[in-house]
Amino acid sequence: MLPYVQFKKAWLTVVDVQAELRLRGERFNRFLPNSILAKKLAMLVNSEEKQEAMTLLEANNTLSDEIVAAKRRELVKKAHLLARVTLAEALDAAGQVYVFGKGAYQRFDSEPREPDFVEFMEYSVVRDLWHQRVAPPGTTSISPASAGAKADSSTPAASKDAKSPSNLKPMANSASRAKSTDTEDNSSSINDDDGDHKRPSPSRTKLETSARAFANRQVSKATAFLWGKRVTQVACGAAVAYALTDAGEVFCWGGNKRQWRYFYDEVTA
Fold first, then answer.
1. Which of 27, 101, 188, 239 is most buried, judging by how many CB atoms fall within 10 Å of its CB?
2. Is residue 268 part of a domain?
3. CA atoms of 212 and 209, how far apart (whole Å)
4. Helix, strand or coil, per DSSP, at residue 193
5. How many domains in the chain?
6. Residues paired with 177 in a beta bridge
7. pTM score, two decimals?
8. Element (H, E) at 186
């Protein structure tokens, strides 16, 4: 194959130099010999080659920067997902409350008002995590057959007495989550053979798996406020719900305001 340098020399000897100069918009004296005009054309071609090389180098650098930026964005996205999973696991360790159904007077189907920053820091993040679990987007909630509401609480202390009636429902929920986890493990083992580019994010898989147990169920979003508050006992009435923590705190839901109220006695505190 003919090298490019020799090809360029041969091209300068056979090409119509004046026509090439006109195409480049270059002014020249048409009475000059072709050897002089060929040198001028060679200078222009060298300048074009340098400009082209600089453009290609800049494009290559830009492409490399975009690849690095895309990888960093993916790492940041994974870090955010991992943070959400870690936060959800920490809150789960401190207990959670699930209310199934809307209640006799449809009082358990709405969200509480935004609490004060002192009462619940970063409540919006916790609320979004709770909604993603109990009411993920794209799912249809189906109310239970009865009009009333059933409340289940799950706390670290609940594992001490697994045979008590109050712990039967949390165990059922745990079994559902365990079954979902088995399904997740099976799907993960299948995806391992497809390569890293097709493997789902473990953090995203955990968030999606935790929501499978509540698919097609009517679960109250209001109990996001009780997430992580170490609730040991709950009671639901027709329009009022109570939650008792292991520290003796009592939270009440009811009335038209639809917000959690904290009972605190300054005299006996």
1. 101
2. no
3. 5
4. helix
5. 2
6. none
7. 0.57
8. helix 168-191
